[in-house]
Amino acid sequence: MQADTTLIDGEFSDRVPVQDRGFAYGDGVFRTMRMVSGVPLHWPLHYQKLSADCAAIGIVCPSAETLMDDITKLFAEEVTERTDSVAKIVITRGIGKRGYAPPAIMSPMRVVSKLAAPTYKNDFYKLGVSLRVCDLTLSKQPKLAGIKHLNRMENVLARMEWQDEQFFDGILRDDTGLVIECTMCNIFARFDNQLLTPLLNETGVAGVTRGQVMQLGNTFSMTVKEQNITMEQLLSADEVMVTNSLFGVFQVTKIADQSWPVMSLSASLRSLIDYDSTH
Amino acid sequence: MQADTTLIDGEFSDRVPVQDRGFAYGDGVFRTMRMVSGVPLHWPLHYQKLSADCAAIGIVCPSAETLMDDITKLFAEEVTERTDSVAKIVITRGIGKRGYAPPAIMSPMRVVSKLAAPTYKNDFYKLGVSLRVCDLTLSKQPKLAGIKHLNRMENVLARMEWQDEQFFDGILRDDTGLVIECTMCNIFARFDNQLLTPLLNETGVAGVTRGQVMQLGNTFSMTVKEQNITMEQLLSADEVMVTNSLFGVFQVTKIADQSWPVMSLSASLRSLIDYDSTH
Asked: Would you call B206 helix, strand, or coil by DSSP?
């Protein structure tokens, strides 16, 4: 990352204060978004999620205008020129003294970065992706469930379980064996015309694309439900999909020994939420 | 904090790279230690804990010599001059690209800071401290239990529950109601000549001072045990103590409506582990 690809509180810099509570305690939230012609794809949804996550942990989120000013400054040349990039926004509680108690007057820090877009194999679009099942099980913290906060050690440790590139991602379960999500994706399971995705009221991250797919379900005359899904149920689904804000939707065609034929729902959903133009 | 009070990988600086995984994911560990004449009190125990915590999450800890060189550089004038300060060491997995997978070759980052020592009221030493009981309950993650890692949102949210300075700290329970620790301390309960402290195999931070107090128990002919303690049991204890590396040991003389007379064990233990010279 170059110094001219990150704005910290609106100023070009690639370093954050060591006293920032994001560094000290992971005390903040973040988002990564696909950029299309200099604008984050589905920005209103991402801003809504960012501000809701901030509110949930008591951080005053910078205004959408302030963040969009930063984005405009960083991605100006992409408005006319077709490039493939990603914007990352981090909001922390700001600078504090040593100790967990936040200062009485808090000044949140915003970090907006321009990053290279990940490149996905063409096969992921045409043939789907393979998942493994992680050994690490997610802890349950209702006060943080759903929030994309900076405390991501569980995702890191889970991701460190494999190097084999055949696996696109790993399934994370809770300690009772329920399927929750993957390290970087949400997950959906279709049973006939029912589209299910795990409840995230005790753990997990409720992504923006997950919300979009839930809303779009009725376009396909499906009943969409958040509910508990066991590993066994997942493996018996008619179709499995993963979602995130960088690729949209991929079909899962292999989990452990279970495989599925390529179907059309994932590609249709991906197209409906405008991810076809990003690859 | 001034620029000359922090060393980042041995260089004076007060800013860390925005791509550091400590900032991005809380992917690292830390320690705070009381300084006495330019040397961290109980340094061998702290280094042992720091390197064990690093190893537990797959980070190669810098050598004790490297860290002591940093400390010497930062605290040189304190060797001869009596000052009251605290050293904080943060070790992160270092710089990475976007995404949870760590780079194949990792270069951990070390941050060593000189901070002002907290000032404790004289009453805490003479009359003990009061605790409240936190609403937030700790999540259980056996793979992170005991480790002082940088994912500290739970401590932050718990500490945000109160402003009333009469409470020295707040008791954290797990979701089954068992007592685990406080936001910044470990906790002990004495029943006659049994000294109990919660098991930390599923959640919590196993502090250095906790380990010292456990080892010292036999000096007082006590049986020391790690075991499950309910809130009800804690309130019925003959004596309650909290420990951390900045003050050593304080007696707890009040929790909710329950109070205890001042006894001698906390002060004796504090003296035995050399915290009397720090106030």
From this structure: coil
- Interface mutation vs chain B, best among A1, A18, A155, most B CBs within 10 Å: A18
Of B18, B111, B151, the CB nearest to A153: B151
The string of DSSP codes covering A185-231 is: -EEEEEETTEEEE---SSSSB--HHHHHHHHHGGGGT-EEEE---BH
ipTM: 0.95
Measure the CA dihedral B240/B244/B250/B254, to 10°: -50
Tell me which chain A residues have a C-beta less than 8 angstroms from the C-beta of B8: 18
Are A124 and A247 within 8 A, CB to CB? yes
Predicted model pTM = 0.96
Q: How many CB atoms lie within 10 A of CB A73?
A: 13
Beta carbons of A118 and B99 less than 8 Å apart: yes
> Which of A136, A139, A120 lies closest to A128 in space, CA to CA?
A120
**What is the DSSP track for A152-195?**
-HHHHHHHTT---TT-SEEEEEETTSBEEEESS-EEEEEETTEE
Task: Compute CA distances B73 → B4, B9, B39, B45, whole Å.
Answer: 10, 12, 11, 21
Q: Is B156 within 8 Å of A23 when comparing Cβ atoms?
A: no
In chain B, DSSP finds a helix count (H) and a strand count (E) of 8, 16
A11-64: pLDDT as tens digits = 999 999 999 999 999 999 999 999 988 889 999 999 999 999 999 999 999 999
Are the beta carbons of B156 and A25 separated by less than 8 Å? Answer: yes
Which chain A residues are closer than 8 Å to B29 by Cβ?
A: none
Q: Distance between CA A222 and CA A224 in Å, rounded?
A: 6
Tokens of A152: 């991501």
Dihedral sign, CA of B146, A98, A55, B92? negative
Q: Name the 3-class secondary structure at A54.
A: helix
Contact at 8 Å (CB) between B251 and B212? no
Tell me whether residues B88 and A99 touch, CB distance under 8 A: no
**Dihedral, CA of residue A271, residue A272, residue A275 and residue A279, to nearest 10:** 20
Contacts of B183 in chain A (CB under 8 A): 100
Which structure tokens are listed for B140?
Answer: 């259980």
**Chain A neighbors of B151, CB-CB under 8 A:** 25-26, 151-153
For residue A144, which of B245, B241, B26 has the smallest C-alpha distance?
A: B26
Q: Cβ(A1)–Cβ(A14) under 8 Å?
A: yes
Write out chain A residues lying below 8 Å of B12, CB-based.
none
CA distance B193 to chain A (A): 33
Q: A18 vs chain B: nearest CA distance in angstroms?
A: 5
CB B140 within 8 A of CB B174: yes
Summarised one tens digit per residue, pLDDT across range A161-200 is 999 999 999 999 999 999 999 999 999 999 999 999 999 9
